[in-house]
Amino acid sequence: MGRPHVLIIPFPAQGHVTPFMKFAYQISDHGIKVTFVNSDFIHEKLVAALPDEDEARSRIGLASIPDGLGPGEDRKDSLKLTDSILRVMPGHLKELIEKVNNSNDDEKITCVIADSAFGWALEVADKMGIKRVAFCPFGPGSLALAFHIPRLIEAGLLNTTDGPLLASHHLGHYAGNFWHEDSTCIGWLDKQPAGSVIYVAFGSLAIFNQRQFNELALGLELVGRPFLWVVRSDFADGSVAEYPDFIERVAENGKIVSWAPQEKVLAHPSVACFLSHCGWNSTMDAIGMGVPFLCWPYFADQFHNQSYICDKWKVGLGLNPDENGFISRHEIKKKIEKLVSDDGIKANAEKLKEMARKSVIEGGSSYKNFQTFVEALKQ
């Protein structure tokens, strides 16, 4: 029997692959062989975005299986993608595991760590007699809520059959691509005063209609502070490039990039606050750096995360939409000014940062839990 061999398979979206990859690095540091499995579509994007010297190429085995959709088919349609995954990927995952296990007796796959959205992958592992672990790329509060849903249904508290309905500034489709980081923004941040910059990023899935996009742009301009804004090419109906007057007006204060090295940005001393969709990865990134939030959740667990940020931890503020679900430039300006002047929120963010730091250093709760998990993988 050789060393433990873990197969890791995330849901094919950047907000899922990123924490899985970080987790894979940590596991490999403890002498465990890791095979990281993506869909063919995501695998190509991941490999193309990795530098030649990236540690993933040497420390982690990268593999892929088909998701059932053709190269040109629309993967922004989440229902279509999910249906295809359920029909196609279980069989391909089983074949991949059999191929690995039949090729080397000393490196058989001993555990499958699958996205909590991929219950089928856990079933495949169970049928093959392989240990299985569900990895949740969202907060523990959302996980606890999910566990209680059956009880809420039994109690008659979840009795709504319509929806979910999207607010007017949202579109009914999503993007899910991998993006090259624009590191020029770090040099730009170096030139800004300490605690002055508004960092604006909505992850890889959120999409605004053009009216809301324009209002956000005008709100940032109205504040008059330096801002770094991540605008994907598919973030809105149109493109910021179609508004040369806006770009010209904010040239001295604003920096717009298609994707940013977020952890480096949030760690930069010039950043004052984070206007965020409150995805769990972004939430953890900002907490780890002690950066206050201005919350603009888009869907899923992001509204739950906002509740923790604003009501429980008190490290941020929420934006209030009007009766039509629209957030005005004046609301954006008012809340940014309130956030950056609130010393209590800043102090709470620093306290939470220190708590997070202590949890991951040797002897901390997260450190101990991870060590226990690694030992379980080796048994």
TrEMBL record:
Protein's name in the database: UDP-glycosyltransferase 83A1
GO molecular function: UDP-glycosyltransferase activity
Similarity-based family: Belongs to the UDP-glycosyltransferase family.
Keyword Transferase: yes
SUPFAM superfamilies documented for this protein: UDP-Glycosyltransferase/glycogen phosphorylase
Pfam families associated with the record: UDPGT
Domain of life: Eukaryota
UniProt KW keywords: Transferase
Chain ranges passing through the membrane: none
UniProt source species: Vitis vinifera
